[in-house]
Every structure is written in structure tokens, then in C-alpha cells.
Design goal:
Chain lengths: 287, 390
């Protein structure tokens, strides 16, 4: 019994970290219809900025997170204007080629500027150490990651489903020409959504850095995992992504506890099964 | 067809060597991609050697030609080695970070009349694949066997082994098990984790549930070691008194700044610490740090490369610049010298390096940096893995 609880706690923590990092990709892929393979690269930029701010400038953790999120958005704005704007609505292959190219450029630049070694983001004392749950101990920063994940999920859901901006965004996604004719400035909508997605990537990169350490190949190393989460959840759906993260986190963690020698067999088996039954993901919208 | 190619290849090589003005050494390693840091260390070690010992052997200039294999890729490694031999006319092949890459090249050596000096790849079996292979790095058997003794002396009798599920991991697991059982200990469970594991909490839970008094761990140096060590601390294993033993790959110097306090006090056994206290090492670290640019990036492959160059220089001296692979290899059998890591020699039987293995503890220096402090020496260790192969 204790073991089951233990696995459940680990699965929840791992799933929520995956969620925080992947949800931005779900937004670009599902709502903006851009296959943004550079998502991991933006998460990595966030991690690097936070690491630089906290270690070299000596600012506090909270401030470092803010600097990372806004710094990454500032870096992403010219990239959006010059590169991404050309590929909105283009065929997927063009998008894949463009964004994978951007990823490689960012990896090269990160390697040149920050060097190939691991970078850490020092945690404040309040997030260090571990908390006792009675039957086991868990790292405090994992609880922090779980809370962050839940907050992000709630805030995004509210923004997309309940605000005027969300209405415009969904309109622009469904029929850009008609939305524009009705006076929605789709360019602004897209730019803002892109900024939000990039900001979420950076936030996830920082919060998840304890589990997925920041180094130049971060952008490629975890790309498949992020894409799997989004495709299983159904691109653009926040409850779907949440469900996918918890489910996949659970399967991965259980498999790793019971039969580590099988590797990621169960993880991918589950992915295949889910995609067979739900081709558009758990909560994918029908076209 | 293959024979004709090889014959043509051999003809080309001999004609190229006859009127070559410089002796060329082809170095294959990961110079770009996720393992670029290790390739950079190869280059730093080679540059350091050439800075300290000169770019000439006798009358002959030495020219190094680098070829990049970013990730373990035997086919590409073989193709590049072939190209080095045929087109560039190299007399020596060296480098090789990954075992499969080195293995793929061994069948070429005899026909090409080229010795292979391995500067890293650490699986025992490679030296048995061709009589023209010499290795100046280490094997996992060599570094993992002494830690078994250390664990037993620390009062641990039941241990769990946790390794990454790939060749070197399995070597480490077997080496530790053999060594630990020889001194009367018991490995209660052996876990092999997938290389791509990011979240080690479930593994830590397994360790806790096994009731072992200590854990033996091996993961390749790099990003995952950070997650592993942190998970070990955060899941209450460290505070719970579970002892941690590992070969030095887990605490390589370039990862230490990131590991920081989490690694403090970890004991590992390895063949080289950048902090090794000797005049040879001081000169080496100074030259290699200059070559690599950033001294914190210096790590163990650099010393393998440095000693590899020493062996190649001795081979060139012995053959007088002639291309004669067998003569070159024979000349260094039994060769002994003082390396930056301490006294070493090439075992005439196995052509693998015999060296001291050090027990080190991660400590904090006065200036706040972390280093591997050597606390015990296991002298003149050969490769127990070769005996296990038989």
C-alpha cells in the first residue's frame, strides 16, 4: 500500500513537471497550428537566463524566474516577427524544417556563450530539502512544481475559455480570415499567444530544471517527450494535456519502479495504444 | 571486391607514407554534439602533450588530423577511419570515446598497417579484437573493482547495484559484483535503468525498499548524474544512512560545479583526478587548461589523450618514422612512464594501461570550488575484466 502511494506521489510530481514544460507547446501546436520543434530551445533559454541571473547576478529565485520568463519573451519577439510569421498556415513540413533549424542555431549559440557544462539554478532555502509526508519524504521543489502546474493549468484554462482574449484567439484559430473581417487583429492575437507560449516554455524550463538539467542539448534531448505529451493529450486542450501528463507520468514511473530493465517500453506502448484509440489525442478537437 | 579495395587501400597507404613529409595521426572523437566536451578534452590533452614535448619526433613533424563522430556511430566511425587511412595517409589512429566506434575500426588495422591508440573507450574486450590496439584510458572493471573493497571496509555487507542499461553499465555491475562477493559481501539486487531516465525517484524508492545498507551506482558522466545524486539526497536515502559508492564517472570535474553541495562527501574510485598532487600533473593541468580555454571544463579524457600521445611519440621514435604497425606496438609493450595521473605502464600481454586507482572524496576547497580529494591509493591495478572474459 505504502509503495502504491509512493509511486503515485512520484507520478504526480513527474507528470506536473512534464505538464508545465509541455503546455506551451500544446498552445502553439493546437491553437496556432505551428509545429514548434523549437519549444524545448525556448525552455532551455529560460533555464540559462535564470541560471545566469541567480548565480552570476545573485538575484533571488522569484526574481530570476521573472527575468527568465520575460527575457525569453524579449528574445523570442524578433524571432517571431522575422521567422515564425512566415510559417503560420504553411504546410507542416515547412514548419518542422524551419523550427528544427532554429533549434540547432539556439543549441550552437548556447554552447558558444555558456559552454557545454551543466548549469544549475540555485533554489532558495525554502524550496531546498525534503518534506515528510508521513510514509515517505519528497523534495520540496517537487511540491512547488506540482503547485505551479496546477496554477498554470487553471490560469490558462480561464484565459482561453472565459476571457475576451480567449474568444478572439479561438476565433482567429478557427477562421483567421473571418475573424479579421470582424475586426479581430489576428496578428496581435498570434503575437501575444506566441509570447505566452514562449513564456510558459521558459517557466517550465526553470521549474523543471531540477529534473531536466539545463545544458545545450536540452532542446533536442527532451523534444520527443514534449511532443508525445502534446499529441497524447490532444493539441490545444489544457485538460487533455493535464490528463496525458498524469497518465504518462504514472505509467512511466510505475514501469520504472517495477521493471526498470524494460526501459521506456511501457511508456511508448501506452502512447501507441492511446493514439490508436484516440487519433486526435485524449481531448483533441475534431476537425 | 572488399579485398581489391583493401589492397588498393594498402597500396595507397604505402605510397603516401613513402614521400610524406609529416607523420600524420588521425584522431576520431566527439568534437560536436552532446559529447563535444569530451572531444574538447581529447584535443586539450593532445595539445598539452605537443606543447610540452614538441611537435617533432627526431626529424619528423607530427600532424594531427581530427575527425568528428558526434554520437556512438560505428558505421560512421569506420568510414572516417578508412578515409583517414586512404586519403590522408595517417600512420596512427587514435582517440575514440565510445566502445562501438573503436570496435568497428579494429578489423581495418592489420591490412592498413596502422596501430590504434584508444584514448577513452572503456570496455575490456576492445584490446582482444586486434593485436594492434593499445589503450591509455581505463576500463570500468579497473575503476569499479577497488570500490567493492572500499564498500566492504566501510562495514557494508548488503548492497544494491544500480547502473545505466548499456555496455559500460553492465561491465560496472559485473565488476562490482565480482569484487564485492570476493570480499564476502552480497549484492541483494541489481537494477538496470534505461539510459534516458530523467526522474530517479522510483529508483530511489526501489533502493529504499530493498533494505540494502549501501548502493553502488554507475551512470555515464553528464546531465543525468546530477538528477541521480539529487534524487538520492532528496528522497531521504542520504539521511537514512544508505552509503553511496560509484566509479569516478559520476563526479567528473566538469560536472562538479553543477553537483555542488549535493555531491559533497561522495566517495568514488577513478584513475585520474584533476587535483592529483604531483609536478607532472601540475605541468599537465597548466598546459591543458590553456589549451581548453576554460579550466573548469577539464576532465578525465584529457589525460587519456595526453598519455595516448606519449605512446604514439614512443612508437614513432622506435620505428624511426617508418610505417610498421607491429613494430610500433611491440616497442611500447611494457613501456612505463610517469603520467599526470601517477606511475603507469603498458601491460605487454593485454596492451592495456596498468595504473593506480584512487579513492577520492568530493570536497570543498578554500576558494569554494569542489574537487575530488584523493584519500587512498590502490597501486598498479591491471584490468580484471580481461580475466573475466576468459
Amino acid at each position: 500500500m505504502q509503495t502504491i502511494f509512493s509511486i503515485a506521489v512520484d507520478a504526480l510530481a513527474y507528470g506536473m513537471v512534464l505538464f508545465v514544460i509541455s503546455i506551451g507547446l500544446s498552445v502553439t501546436l493546437g491553437l496556432m497550428r505551428v509545429v514548434n520543434l523549437a519549444h524545448g530551445a525556448f525552455a532551455m533559454i529560460g533555464g540559462y537566463i535564470a541560471s545566469y541571473a541567480a548565480r552570476d547576478l545573485g538575484v533571488g529565485y522569484g526574481l530570476a524566474v521573472l527575468i527568465a520568463v520575460f527575457g525569453t519573451i524579449v528574445i523570442a519577439i524578433p524571432i517571431e516577427r522575422l521567422l515564425y510569421r512566415r510559417i503560420y498556415g504553411r504546410p507542416e513540413l515547412t514548419q518542422v524544417l524551419m523550427t528544427i533549424g532554429i533549434t540547432f542555431c539556439i543549441i550552437g549559440i548556447a554552447n558558444y556563450v555558456f559552454g557545454p557544462t551543466l548549469k544549475t539554478i540555485p533554489l532558495p532555502p525554502s524550496l531546498q530539502g525534503s518534506a515528510d509526508l508521513g510514509f515517505r519524504s519528497i523534495a520540496v521543489h517537487r511540491i512547488f512544481a506540482i503547485v505551479c502546474g496546477l496554477c498554470v493549468a487553471a490560469a490558462l484554462w480561464y484565459a482561453i475559455e472565459r476571457t475576451a482574449f480567449g474568444v478572439r484567439l479561438r476565433a482567429a484559430v478557427d477562421d483567421a480570415a473571418m475573424a479579421a473581417a470582424l475586426g479581430v487583429r489576428t496578428e496581435v492575437i498570434y503575437a501575444v499567444s506566441f509570447a505566452v507560449a514562449v513564456g510558459l516554455a521558459a517557466f517550465g524550463g526553470v521549474v523543471g530544471a531540477e529534473l531536466l538539467p539545463v545544458e545545450p542539448y536540452y532542446a533536442l534531448r527532451y523534444m520527443v517527450t514534449f511532443l508525445v505529451v502534446v499529441s497524447v493529450g490532444g493539441a490545444g486542450s489544457i485538460p487533455g494535456a493535464l490528463a496525458a501528463c498524469l497518465l504518462l507520468g504514472g505509467i512511466d514511473t510505475t514501469g520504472r519502479y517495477l521493471m526498470p530493465e524494460f526501459g521506456e517500453f511501457f511508456f511508448y506502448l501506452a502512447v501507441i495504444a492511446i493514439v490508436c484509440v484516440f487519433p486526435r489525442g485524449l481531448a483533441g478537437r475534431m476537425k | 571486391m572488399r579485398r581489391i579495395i583493401l589492397a588498393a587501400l594498402a597500396a595507397l597507404v604505402t605510397s603516401a607514407a613513402a614521400h610524406a613529409d609529416a607523420i600524420k595521426v588521425g584522431v576520431v572523437g566527439p568534437f560536436s554534439g552532446p559529447f563535444a566536451l569530451q572531444g574538447k578534452n581529447f584535443k586539450a590533452g593532445i595539445d598539452a602533450y605537443m606543447a610540452l614535448s614538441g611537435v617533432k619526433v627526431g626529424e619528423d613533424d607530427i600532424e594531427i588530423i581530427y575527425r568528428d563522430v558526434p554520437q556512438a556511430d560505428p558505421a560512421q566511425s569506420k568510414a572516417l577511419a578508412q578515409e583517414l587511412v586512404v586519403k590522408e595517409g595517417v600512420q596512427y589512429l587514435a582517440g575514440f570515446y565510445f566502445t562501438p566506434d573503436a570496435m568497428a575500426v579494429t578489423p581495418l588495422l592489420e591490412q592498413a598497417n596502422v596501430p590504434l591508440v584508444i584514448m577513452n573507450a572503456a570496455t575490456s574486450a576492445i584490446v582482444t579484437k586486434s593485436p594492434l590496439v593499445v589503450r591509455t584510458s581505463f576500463t570500468l572493471w579497473q575503476t569499479s573493482t577497488p570500490i567493492a573493497k572500499v564498500a566492504r571496509e566501510a562495514g557494508v555487507s548488503k548492497i544494491i547495484s544500480v547502473v545505466s542499461d548499456y555496455g559500460p553499465g553492465i561491465d560496472a555491475e559485473n565488476a562490482f559484483k565480482t569484487g564485492f562477493e570476493a570480499v564476502g559481501g552480497q549484492v541483494v539486487e541489481a537494477i538496470r535503468m534505461p539510459l534516458s531516465t530523467n526522474d530517479f525517484s522510483p529508483i530511489m524508492q526501489r533502493i529504499k525498499d530493498s533494505g540494502a545498507e549501501g548502493v553502488f551506482a554507475f551512470l555515464p558522466s553528464g546531465p543525468t548524474t546530477l538528477g541521480f545524486v539529487k534524487a538520492f539526497n532528496e528522497n531521504g536515502l542520504k539521511d537514512g544512512g544508505v552509503k553511496f559508492f560509484a566509479p569516478g564517472d559520476l563526479t567528473q570535474e566538469s560536472d562538479l560545479p553543477a553537483l555542488g553541495d549535493a555531491a559533497l562527501g561522495l566517495q568514488t574510485t577513478f584513475h585520474y583526478s584533476v587535483s592529483h598532487d604531483s609536478p607532472e600533473n601540475k605541468a599537465f593541468v597548466e598546459a591543458a587548461a590553456k589549451a581548453i580555454g576554460n579550466p573548469t571544463e577539464l576532465s578525465f579524457p584529457s589525460v587519456g589523450a595526453y598519455d595516448g600521445m606519449h605512446v604514439i611519440y614512443k612508437m614513432i621514435e622506435a620505428t624511426g618514422g617508418e610505417q610498421n604497425a607491429q613494430k610500433a606496438v611491440d616497442a611500447v609493450k611494457g613501456l612505463s612512464w610517469t603520467s599526470p595521473r601517477g606511475p603507469v605502464s603498458i601491460d605487454p600481454e593485454s596492451r592495456h594501461i596498468t595504473q593506480n586507482i584512487y579513492l577520492r572524496e568530493v570536497s570543498k576547497a578554500d576558494d569554494g570550488t569542489y574537487y575530488n580529494k584523493e584519500i587512498q591509493t590502490f597501486e598498479k591495478q591491471g584490468d580484471p575484466g580481461l580475466a573475466a572474459l576468459k
